[in-house]
Amino acid sequence: MLKGSELMRLKGHSQPKCQVIIADDHPLIVFAVTKVLENVKELRLAGSASSSSSLLQLLQKTSCDVLLCDYSFDEGGDSDGLQLIKQVQELYPHIKIIVLTAHDDVVIALRILSLKVAGFISKASGEFSGLPFVISQVQMGRSYIDPITLNALTLHRLNNGKGSDNLAEVALSEREQEVLRLFALGMTVSEIALHTQRSVKTISAQKKKAMDKLGVSNVVELLEAIKGLF
User: Fold this and answer.
1) What is the pLDDT of residues 145-198, one digit of tens each?
2) Which residues belong to any copy of the HTH luxR-type domain (predicted)?
3) What Rg do the C-alpha atoms of the chain give, in angstroms?
4) Domain ranges of the chain
5) How distant, in Å, are the alpha carbons of 23, 25, 71, 110, 143 from that of 150?
6) Which of 13, 46, 96, 202 is at a distance of 20 to 30 A from 115, taking alpha carbons?
7) DSSP string, 16-41
């Protein structure tokens, strides 16, 4: 039996904050991400880097749990995003990498996802406001792909690679994309309804419409269609 003083001590003991580093050579992106995350009590912004070389230097001396990293940097001779991701993964395998990129190309997305990064967000998707949720997901061992990218990759897969390579050319509505993304993360219809504050009936209908547009007739086919994207 714990004494009262011991209970108070345990209750006062907070979990260590998730240490986040931002790596992007665009100051406005760093500013925007910082503003979104700075007041999230579970997170701590441990630093930022504007080049791959400065990022590697920062990681040598700074603890990092989640890295929000651009795919490429505008620095001569050192802008290979894939090589940078591989290097970070080899040196710091515990770090969860979420790639933020302006490259809205299916081929590039597939190349990045082949490295088994924890998350992928196209800057064109406008998903920055949801970063706290994304970080919480990857911290729990889940993967995340923004709705626009997920939809484009799914259509690309269903069309055997013959679909559009432009992530902006999507067939699903924003809410259908959201339902599909959350379903792909492992949520049930009821959990999605609770998370989005919509009714179970509405979520079921949006899921059904998304499946119709993707050309799949059941959950097994839907899961098969998105398998390998995470």
Assistant:
1) 888 888 778 777 666 554 444 444 445 677 887 787 788 777 888 989 998 899
2) 165-230
3) 19
4) 16-146, 171-230
5) 23, 25, 17, 11, 12
6) 46
7) PPEEEEEE-S-HHHHHHHHHHHTT-T
Query: Is the distance from CB of 225 to CB of 149 less than 8 angstroms?
Result: no
The CATH class given to the 171-230 domain equals mainly alpha
At residue 98, φ and ψ (nearest 5 deg) are -110, 115
Q: What's the pLDDT tens digit per position in 31-86? A: 989 999 988 989 999 999 988 889 999 999 999 999 999 887 765 444 457 788 98
Helix (H) or strand (E) holding 213: helix 200-214
Q: Is the pTM of this model over 0.85?
A: no
Amino acid 40 reads V
State which amino acid sits at residue 33. Answer: V
- Pair 32, 78: CB distance under 8 Å: no
Distance CA 138, CA 119 (A): 7
